[in-house]
């Protein structure tokens, strides 16, 4: 499907599983998070435990992790919307709101 209408572009940004995801590895691996040995035993994901412990192989052979690939998807989808809106040359309130949302999602992904 090739998006061509404002509704199509809104649907791209409404993909909440992708567009509302925020990476957390930066917090887990930082000095801002403190945990006890008992608390660490409660961590279910090896990826999170390894990041906290700064293990040599944080990913344990996992090829894809959302902390790396999802922000790039957010940027990609935002760019599709921004490019499409430019081609539509629509200055309606809905088009401006979509442009603002796409700019926000793209900038947040780069943060």
SSE diagram, text form:
Layout: H1 6-13, H2 16-19, H3 25-28, H4 37-41, H5 46-53, H6 66-88, H7 93-110
Helix pairs in contact: 1-6, 1-7, 6-7
Would you summarize the structure shown here?
The protein has seven helices and no strands. By secondary structure, the protein is an all-alpha fold.
**Large-scale geometry:** elongated
Alpha carbon gap, first and last residue: 30 Å
Assembly of the depicted chains: single chain
Number of helices: 7
Tally of domains: 1
What is the average per-residue confidence, as pLDDT, rounded to a whole number? 91
Report the portion of residues in β strands. under 5%
The total strand number stands at 0
Characterise this structure.
- The protein is mostly helical.
- It has one domain.
- 63% of the residues lie in helices and 0% in strands.
- Helix 1 runs parallel beside helix 7.
Features:
111 residues, mainly alpha, 7 helices, 0% strand, elongated
């Amino acid at each position: 499907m090739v998006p061509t209408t404002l509704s199509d572009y809104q649907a791209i940004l409404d993909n909440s599983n992708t567009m509302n995801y925020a990476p957390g590895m930066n917090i887990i691996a930082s000095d801002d998070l403190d945990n006890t040995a008992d608390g660490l035993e409660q961590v279910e994901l090896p990826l999170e435990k390894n990041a906290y412990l700064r293990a040599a192989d944080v990913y344990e052979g996992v090829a894809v992790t959302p902390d790396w690939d999802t922000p790039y998807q957010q940027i990609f989808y935002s760019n599709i919307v921004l490019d499409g809106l430019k081609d539509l040359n629509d200055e309606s309130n809905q088009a401006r709101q979509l442009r603002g949302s796409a700019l926000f999602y793209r900038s947040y992904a780069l943060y």
